Amino acid sequence: MNCCGSYKLLNATPPNTNSFTSTGQNETSITLQWNKVNNSGSFILQFDGTEINITAPDGDGAVTHTVSSLTAGTKYTFTLFSVFENIRSSGVNITAVTAPQNAESLKSIVQDETSITLQWNKVNNTGSFILLFDSTEINITAPDGDGAVTHTVSSLTAGTKYTFTLFSVFENIRSSGVNITAVTAPQNAQAFKSTGQNETSITLQWNKVNNTSSFILQFNGTEIHITAPDGDGAVTHTVSSLTAGTKYTFTLFSVFENIRSSGVNIIAVTAPQNAQAFKSTGQDETSITLQWNKVNDTGSFILQFNGAEINITAPDGDGAVTHTVSSLTAGTKYTFTLFSVFENIRSSGVNITAVTAPQNAQAFKLTGQDETSITLQWNKVNNNTSFILQFDGTEINITAPDGDGAVTHTVSFLTAGTKYTFTLFSVFENIRSSGVNITAVTAPQNAESLKSTGQNETCITLQWNKVNNNTSFILQFDGTEINITAPDGDGAVTHTVSSLTAGTKYTFTLFSVFENIRSSGVNITAVTAPPNTNSFTSTGQNETSITLQWNKVNDNTSFILQFNGAKINITAPDGDGAVTHTVSSLTAGTKYTFTLFSVFENIRSSGVIVTASTEYVIGLNIRLQSYGQLSDSDLQGLLEEVESPIEQQVRSS
Asked: Which secondary structure element, helix H or strand E, spans residue 406, and what is its range?
């Protein structure tokens, strides 16, 4: 019995289960599976000095047991005993591991357009990882030493969101895995450029990047978030509140899922301020001089006019900038636009209009004058030009008359005999020409007190008062002109005109002359003395009268017979023949002296003289009474005897 009993015991050892395997694990448990052993329904699982009694469930099927509270990433040796009637089988062994812990601090630390760099911490002594994305697995062995694990995933698509799963691997067992999403940087915007600027803003433009609609514009330590508008077309953004004439560096980042592109840079500048105090400081017929103040340190300017542009560099130092535009057309209005230039960018520009001086009037001349006025004449310049006449500190504005023809202007209220300098300016848009000068004089005053002070048969003496010491005279008569210079000193001017014809009326015109300009002239008529008559004789006498006879001088002449303080006006009879005049009421036996003047226009000739006597007949009468009975012949003889003593008496008397 003991033998049989002993045999029975030996045969009671149950067989080991077959197909003892690990069917799964996580960080803290391992699931084991095995097949049942005949009708043995009890098992002992032994590991790490621990035994677990396991009763197989009823029914068919494998036995599954999960060992929990394990350490992650740890290799365990499990021994499984089948138990029958408290008798264990010899046992079967397997090794199994818990899943390692997931890597911690998995993150994307950097990216660019084609790669994403991930980083995570090592897991205990686990040095192997699997990175899963886009159905691709990458086996990664952590580098030796401490520190995080870094891995860069390349050959990616720009601006794309990726989901990465990272498994820690221990003994070919993966952790449950940890996920992150990360994106590649978007592409940089294309065609990033400055499309315009003014003094305080710069307008930038760029193309959209695929469906990326968010951008960051960075400058001067400032960031501006920009959302692109819907639809096609470029993105435009104006940066305002900037400083004029300043260079800015702009960096534009495309943004996708808060990830920026590498960025693209441009340099752009604000327009400089316009130049201040832009003005015209002078002009002539062919040029205009412009002046303006410098703009900060901007030393470059562009002057634009008539479709032309002139580049101007300001001189060094302080002070305004001056530039003369030449080769212009006289009397023309020009519009000048001045741009300040900074880094080839122009300011908005400031405008002025300026004109060239008009041409001087041509043929400016004196056409006449009198004592108080001067008449000037000149040719028009064009229909848009007026004139300023300047003299003696006075300016006269003159508008040219309509139509063709010269312009004539009379300057009045002047002083006689005075030299004036006239400057004539053509005027266009209030700008004067350089001016053209002439000197002109007013006519002097006429001489005063012009009179005839004497004459004879061949000359007339004239006299007048001086006008002033600068004035000479011209005496005009009978188509003849005599230049007369007034003598020095005070007093009247006297001039005798000789070689004249006796008994002739002359009209004299006396002109005062100043700078070869004559006065209007003053006239007098004066006559030469007529000639004396010839053949002035006594043709007879008696006791109380004497008969005189003479020839006529001309038909216009009368006579004055003067004797004994008496004057007798005698008009010659009409017709030819001598003039006879008997002077009566004389005293007998008296000698008379007669002076005969020819008279023309109340002017006497020098006079001719004859003496004649009335008869002295007292003694003769007595004797005749004694010889009253004498014959004629006796009487004649007696008279002859008496005549001689009478004549003697007359002569002695």
From this structure: none
Q: For residue 214, is it within any domain? A: yes
Nearest in space to 300 (alpha carbons), one of 245, 352, 354: 245
Confidence of residue 323 (pLDDT cuts 50, 70, 90): very high
Three-state DSSP class for residue 614: coil
**pLDDT at position 623 over 80:** no
Strand segments (E) across 365-414: 365-369, 374-378, 386-391, 394-398, 407-411
Distance, in Å, from the CA atom of 610 to the CA atom of 326, rounded to the nearest integer, reads 96
What is the per-residue pLDDT across 512-530, written as a single tens digit (0 to 9) for each? 999 999 999 999 999 999 9
Amino acid at 565: G
Query: H or E segment at 230?
Result: none
Are 408 and 495 in the same domain?
A: no
CA distance 643 to 636: 11
Judged against a pLDDT cut of 50, whether residue 642 lies above it is answered with no
Q: Are 251 and 296 part of one and the same domain?
A: no
- In 3-state terms, what secondary structure has residue 410? strand
Whether 176 and 102 have beta carbons less than 8 Å apart is answered as yes
Same domain, 83 and 13: yes
Per the CB < 8 A criterion, the answer to whether 128 and 103 are in contact is no
156: domain CATH number is 2.60.40.10
Residue-wise pLDDT for 483-495, tens only, equals 999 888 888 999 9
Pick the closest to residue 291 from 302, 304, 280 (CA basis).
Answer: 280
Is 622 in the same domain as 608? no
Burial letters 619-628, b for 16+ CB under 10 A, else e: eeeeeeeeee
pTM: 0.61
Higher confidence at residue 59 or residue 399? 399
| Residues 6+ away with beta carbon under 8 Å from 548 | 536, 537, 538, 539, 561, 580, 581, 582, 583, 594, 596, 610, 612
Does 532 fall in a domain?
Answer: no
Q: How confident is the model at residue 57 (pLDDT cuts 50, 70, 90)?
A: confident
Domain range spanning residue 564? 537-613
**Inter-residue contact 140 to 131 (CB < 8 Å):** yes
**DSSP symbols for 474-535:** EEEETTEEEEEPPPSSSS-EEEEE-SPPTT-EEEEEEEEEETTEE-S-EEEEEEPPPPPPS-
Residues 6+ apart with CB under 8 A from 191: 205, 206, 207, 234
Helix axes 618-626, 632-652, angle to 10 degrees: 160
The tally of domains found in the chain comes to: 8
Same domain, 305 and 324: yes
Residue 259 predicted with pLDDT over 80: yes
Closest C-alpha among 89, 67, 106 to residue 16: 89
Whether residue 162 is predicted with pLDDT greater than 50 in this model: the reply is yes
Amino acid 640: pLDDT: 52
Specify whether 18 is located in the same domain as 91.
Answer: yes
Q: Which residue has the higher pLDDT, 490 or 347?
A: 347
Residue 82 belongs to a domain: yes
- Cα–Cα dist 249/239, whole Å: 12
Question: Are residue 467 and residue 505 in the same domain, yes or no?
Answer: yes
